[in-house]
Amino acid sequence: MNPDQWRTYLVTQESLSGGRSSREIVTAAIEGGVDAVQLREKGVDARSRYELGLELRELTAEADVALLVNDRIDLARAIDADGVHLGTGDLPVEVAREALGPDAVVGYSASTVEEAIEGERAGADYLGVGAVYGTTSKADVPEENDGIGTERVAEIAERVDVPVVGIGGITVENAPAVREAGAAGVAVISAITAAEEPAAATARLREAVTDV
Q: Which residues are catalytic?
């Protein structure tokens, strides 16, 4: 699994999926050419996330798509995910590496250059940088938040050697600018989960960032 090759990255959230299951959304995203899937599902209990994770592991393994788990190192191990994505308030990158092994993919969230450098030094394989644009998918982010912008993405990409994945408020229209700023790819929630046709939305997003 090489994060430098991830152009489109889906973060699941069934509550934003228009009444469809995350399994349906992931199946459609795979059809559309997604490169990586992160099991997020905020607000869902651990048992339900585990059961969904087993289903997504089967789907992604068959399609050779990377599967990561948001926050939970133990859940990543339990479903044999390819790795985990950690935030600044989660367990350290080094702990995830020790628990999951040298071949696991460990991502780290960063919104500043300092956080990005810290994540790289700790051994993160890629950085999730954002929120690039304003987003309402996180309850603790004000709606008026404008995001860190593509200039910050470019600054971070220039200062680290690991791949950068932009996240937050990304759409088909603004995704190319994130790639032009130096990101390897883009991660989205609503741009796929809320789309009327998630497979087609994934394909359009992939096309938008692939030739940049």
A: 40, 109, 138
